[in-house]
Design a protein that fits this description.
- By secondary structure, this protein is mainly beta.
- It has one domain (about 5-450, about 460-755): Maltoporin, Chain A.
- It contains four helices and 39 strands.
- The protein has a 22-stranded antiparallel beta barrel. A five-stranded mixed β-sheet has the order 2-8-9-6-7.
- The chain is globular and about 85 Å long.
Length: about 750
Amino acid sequence: MEKLLAPHPSASRTLLGSSLALALAAPGSFLPTGAQAQTAGKPATLSPVTVQGDEGDGYKTDEASQAKFTAPLLDTPKSVQIIPQAIIQDTNATSLEDVLRNSPGITFGAGEGGQPLADRPFIRGASSASNIYVDGIRDAGGQTREVFDLESVEIIRGADSALGGRGTGGGSINLTSKHAHLGDVASASLGIGTDTYFRATADGNWQFSDTSAFRLNVLGASGDMPGRGAVDYKNWGVAPTISFGLGTPTRASLGYYHYQTDGMPDYGVPVIRQTGTRNFPYMTDNGILDVDRDTFYGVYDRDYRKTQADIGTLEIEHDITDRLTVRNATRYGETLNDYVLTNPGDGQVKYDAGTGRYWLLRGTKTRWQKSTTLANVTELTGRFETGRLKHRFNAGIEMSRETTKNASYQFSNVSGSACPAVFAGKMDCTPLFNPNPDDPWYGDITRGPLSLDARSTTQAVYFFDSIELNEQFSVNAGLRFDRYRISGESVPRGATAPVHDDGAWNMFNYQLGLVYKPARNGSIYVSYATASTPPSMSGGDQDSLGVTGANSLGDLKPEKSRTVELGTKWNFLDDRLGLTAAIFENERRDAQIEVDPGVYAQAGKTRVRGLELGINGRITPKWAVYGGYAYLNSKLVEGAYSNVNVGDPLTNTPRHSFSLWSTYKVLPPLTVGAGAYYVGKTFGGSGQGTAGGGAHGTYMPAYWRFDAMASYQVHKNLSLQLNALNLTDKVYYARNNGNHHADFGPGRQFILTANLKY
């Protein structure tokens, strides 16, 4: 048994002096792909490349990084948004959640599901935490992802199991990592700010032969959450890569990624429930307890969260001919998510007449979760003609094995803050409206037996083809067949011993789109796509066992999703500015629900109809813009037997959302920028499964948030950047679990960063 004592972590301010010096002297990168390799005269690989420009020019990207996209984005009949490095840097984003603020319609779930205290994005009404990829390979495990080794973030909306395999039908996110390349380049940044903000990064690329290069990215960061000083973090990471054969027909790269965190976890403030022992007083309109933003229910002497990710990738590419390339990538990764925290929403509330106050008996939530992934992908990319038809294709075979182990912690020899008499001698109480995180807590924390030990395997084949019929019409098609199996042991709720369960499913998915080009710079398309969600991940969060209900996994079939979309994409101003628009319907069906008391059937159904608009690029040589608008009309069509939520909007799915970031070069050395972000009223909930509307639960009120930036080029190698985040210090909720808690968004923060490049 493992014994742990977890004091409040300190916010170290180590300057990484030796690491930064090493990074500038010997640069490298993580998870390379040959898509960036080039010869002096022509590309040495047929894989699409992400086009990046100078600062201020890189707001528009014309190609996706994955070879599965066999046409430029302009001619791809699907909603695809790419958030490039320039946006990440200008907005001072440091996490995946920060980056996706620039993608309207995407929200994040709070805790619960299979990924508590980890990235839980919702896309078009569906939890998509298991639909996150790095360079096209599924990135499993409970993680809160950083950006120090990212080149861009690609968001694919709608059913897309043809692209990535099992998914929840709302969409997926692909993280494109930085790659080694020919040439010597180095950069470093040092940022300091309010709320003890500190962040240092270095990125360098060193060419050590005509065809070889080494790249290194390093990170050190620490600070407090603005407006919630009790919540802090301390993170560091390193990502080296060595690549050979760059600019030749045969290329090989070996990369490693390490990232770890240590901080104080935050489960926000309670939502109000008037049932059982959780009788929170004073109902509010939104169902969230009305307390100040800095109210913190955790305990410094007990709560902690530590995560770690270690991922290695070997990739080999070979150009068989100038029209045909074969690629093989092998990846092994381990992630750990380890925490003990206070869950105020699971606590008990009682009024003590002696003190004249309401008291909270703190609830707790713990987890030790370790996940591993071993994956191998082999694919063939090329071009050919059949008569007058021109083809650009990608065909591949994917094999993977994933494991997930979960356990909880147990407390013993506990002593701490006393409770009033109404709690009959219990400990760990605090005033409900004025909690004290300095309350004493002493005890032993030991890890209990595994509550989940699951193993899954996937064997898949896929094929994509863009067929140019003539100058105006093209067809884009994709097919994928998956053989997915999961088995293992879990402890169902209420049970005392592990139960074995397993299931295996064959899943066939496809996408089909027709593109019409009325002009060289524009396209109009219609498309249809499908997705499959195995019963083991019906919550959209991770592989799991012990499905609630009378059925074992093997008795259930995958949920099905479909997307119908009509859209248009245009490039203007000599291709500097891109505009997109799409209307769509996403439907998800066959979710397991309780149709009568104790009777279960796969009859759950949801529907999201919407409109999405996007803009990216440059209006003038000095004026750059990036943003969009999303309208999501969601509905629970068929739910549980009580029908209490049928007809309600889905949780974590605001009807209106908007983002716009813009910069303007006032003077040759001076650029100013500003961002406006709007998220409409958003209903909360655990988001698990399809059944779960929100109108009868809690909700987050609509809010506006404004950011600003100014950058000054002091020297050709040095620039200074000042960011003001949440400029008006707006108090808002960023995440909401309707059954337990709501999490505040960060308050106002000022950050000054020095960027060095040569």
